[in-house]
Amino acid sequence: MKITHTAALILALCAAPAFAAAPLQNQASVRPVEGKIIGKIRGDAGILGVQGDVLEFTHGVVRINGTPVATVPKVCEIKYIVDGTRRTFYVNGKQRALPEIPPPPAVMHIGGLT
After folding, report:
1. Max Cα-Cα span within the chain
2. What is the side-by-side strand order in the sheet with 36-43?
3. Which residue of 22, 24, 72, 75 has the fewest C-beta atoms within 10 A of its own C-beta?
4. pTM of the full predicted structure?
């Protein structure tokens, strides 16, 4: 059986997605550990709430309560630990300084703000 160049090209293009790399699996978690609350994001994007603070990571920028706090590698592990009033922030296992963080945004409930 003779396959033309056009048919071979079409076959190759249709088969290519099957061999493509698997997409990146982002992970986000919040868990209590020994009286602390630990929030963790792995991958290239994520959002989570930790003790009222909103932690967002996208396009290599970490924001807490809407305020940019760090530029980080596009793909990394972000860890945010709340221990009472103390907050610590890690990128790929290394602690980073946190600037002054504004209070978390107001939460909307049906019937108005609380």
Report:
1. 74
2. 27-33, 36-43, 76-83, 86-91, 94-96
3. 22
4. 0.70
Instruction: State how far the Cα of 50 lies from the Cα of 64, in Å rounded to an integer.
Output: 10
Listed in order, strand segments (DSSP E) in the chain are 27-33, 36-43, 45-50, 53-58, 61-64, 67-71, 76-83, 86-91, 94-96, 108-109, 112-113
Residue-wise pLDDT tens digits, 16-61: 444 445 556 899 999 999 999 999 999 999 999 999 899 999 999 9
What CA–CA distance (Å, rounded) separates 14 from 57? 35
Q: Where are the domains of the chain?
A: 24-113
Cα(14)–Cα(17) distance, integer angstroms: 7
| pLDDT, tens only, 85-100 | 899 999 999 999 998 8
Given a contact cutoff of 8 angstroms between Cβ atoms, the answer to whether 64 and 100 are in contact is no
**Which of the four pLDDT bands, split at 50, 70 and 90, describes residue 105?**
low
Sole residue written with tokens 């946190």: 98
